[in-house]
Amino acid sequence: MSAPLVRSPVHLAVSLDGAGHYDPGYFVRLARLAEQGTLDFVTLGDSFARAGLDALAVLSRVAPATERIGLVPVVNTTHTEPFHVSSAVATLDWVSGGRAGWSPEVSTSEAEARLFGRRPAARTAEVWHEAREVADVAAKLWDSWEDDAEIRDEPTGRFIDRDKLHYVDFEGRSFSVRGPAIVPRPPQGHPVTVIDATAAEPRAAAVRHADVALVRTQDPLAARTARGELHDRARAHGRDPERLRVFGSLPVALATTADAVELAGLIGDWHQEGAVDGFHLRLAEPGRDLALIVKATVPVLQHRGLLRSFYPGATLREHLGLARPVNQYATAGGGRHERG
User: Fold this and answer.
1) Could you please report the per-residue DSSP string of 204-267?
2) How far apart are CA 190 and CA 138, in angstroms?
């Protein structure tokens, strides 16, 4: 008899989305609860189409109040300058000690475009092409400082080794960025990129740039098919598919601990079938549902050996089993990128 298939422990993440919450303590409490359950990360949505707090700013407030949980805000790339996007996400990685991610999102409505007055609304294909360019230039900006570019030599007054700063010189369809960044290279090298890859255009971005791809489906067969497609397309773009984590993104509404135990069974079944690498749970009521997940679902998964009982590392990349990216400029032997 052949040995049973042994799979790595499941990854778990939850969405903290919920309208009408403006108290930062609310998000701190939820993130700490998720951390108590050893979840990989929390996400927080954002949109120009409704009133609400800025997700990236909220999670920057949550960062010093937590120790291990990954923090992934949605960041709209359509009406936000790419240089500012990269700087803000890098800053979140620094203030969290290497636990930051970001989830690129786009805007296609005229109402949202009018809020800024900079440009008219554009088609989905166009703004997702731009989002791919933002992800590309963000990675270049994060690499524009080599890891040891800061020397802080007080006797000579030298703060930076200028040989280890690099210009990006990126020209996109709708923007250009020269660089270098104003924030040193983040602790993770690149904060984790999480993309909802359910629809066609964001899936094209995910196969090129995502570390974690989310797929909204309640069918394990559809999830496994999507995982295979994402891996195949990532490989076609020259990426190692084993460095792309695919999560099933499921709506969750729990009323009792019995529901939480049932959820553990579903997670175990999907994971055993190889449908996904993890789960992103979209909670109907985060305060209620997350408490039940941590109280009932997590212990069951831990008892079955499907979920870790402690964080083995400190960074989000370590939680996900992802290597820290090598600096593209350092490996290229770029030297100084100065202008005469």
Assistant:
1) HHHHHH-SEEEEE-S-HHHHHHHHHHHHHHHHHTT--GGG-EEEEEEEE---SHHHHHHHHHHH
2) 9
The 10s digit of each residue's pLDDT in 220-246 is 999 999 999 999 999 999 999 999 999
Where are the alpha helices (H) located in 21-123, listed in sequence order?
24-36, 55-62, 82-95, 110-116
Give the C-alpha separation, 179 to 133, whole Å: 15
99/77 Cα distance (integer angstroms): 21
The model scores a pTM over 0.90? yes
Query: Tokens at residue 276, please?
Result: 């996904």
d(CA 186, CA 212): 18
Q: Which residues pair with 247 in a beta bridge?
A: 214, 278
Q: What per-residue string of b and e applies to 297-308 under the rule 16 or more CB within 10 Å gives b?
A: bbbbbbeeebbb
Strands 150-153 and 158-160: antiparallel
Helix (H, G, I), strand (E, B) or coil at 74: strand
What distance lies between CA 139 and its chain's CA centroid? 13
Rounded-to-integer distance, Cα 95 and Cα 70, Å: 12
Q: Are the C-beta atoms of 245 and 10 separated by less than 8 Å?
A: no
Q: Where are the alpha helices (DSSP H) in 76-196?
A: 82-95, 110-116, 124-143
**Which residue in this structure is represented by tokens 């729990």?**
254
Find tokens 């991610």 and name the residue. 101
Cβ count within 10 A of residue 5: 8
pLDDT, tens digit, for every residue of 282-334? 999 999 999 999 999 999 999 999 999 999 999 999 999 999 999 999 875 54
